[in-house]
Amino acid sequence: MGENIEKSEVKLTVGQRFLRLLLTLRRALIPIFVYLLWGMLFELLWALLLAVFAGAFPGTDFLRFLQENEGLFLMLAISLPSFFVLYRMYRRDCFWFQADTGERKPVPCPGCLLLTALGAASGFNILLQLSPLIRMFPSIVEVNAELAGSSLLLSLCYTVLAAPVVEELLFRGLLYRRLREGLPFLPAAVVSALLFGAMHANMVQFIYASVVGLLLAWIYERYGNLKAAVLFHAIGNLTGNLSGLFTSRELLAVFPAAGWIGAAGFLLLMAWGISGISRKVAPPVYRWRSLLEE
Asked: What does residue 222 show for φ and ψ, rounded to 5 degrees?
């Protein structure tokens, strides 16, 4: 993406480069702050709404259902309005930063994308289960227990539908894309991946999401549209949810060799998918639209 951007002939001084970097970071981080402020507002509104329901429907099944799925309801409540705010920002960015070849409607080579997502989600999940990280940072167990005790339909709606769309819009469509205005691929991918990991709020998910975030940045860079990243994210989340049912820590403790073989097989599947994408998907050419351009 960035390698194909038309570069100015004027050479910048060190001070100008540093100022440009600061302006790039400031612009890139604005959507993150918008999302966080929006989330804090809805968290307060949700607490107020839950208090109202507790007074109006004390001891009812409806109230218990709300309380048991409080986290998912809150995240879904944040996701819907956040989508419209972030999408408006994204569409405005798309006007100024566009592909010369036009927007790609279909996602090319979906089979390679599917293999990469399946291999990455399953392989990384098994490796995390085999590693000592869960013992070192047990907060992930509470997160998984909360999801396991929640409504399956709500959990799938959030993890497979809402989260991929909103998170890709925020972290790849806005944060990464704005970072790429002033940074090469690798620094922009690393910064966006680390912030993506940090938003998951526990160390195990931070490591997992940061690694996956690097892969998602490459997917977005390679395909040139957000649909591929959203599809990859949705497949990865669904695969992660399903693999957790069959690769529990207790089962892997009994058959660790099978776990290592399985992880290696899934990572080879991921590598095969990445190789296919590299060979079959040519990245689009981008250019800047001048502010003076009609």
From this structure: -75, -45
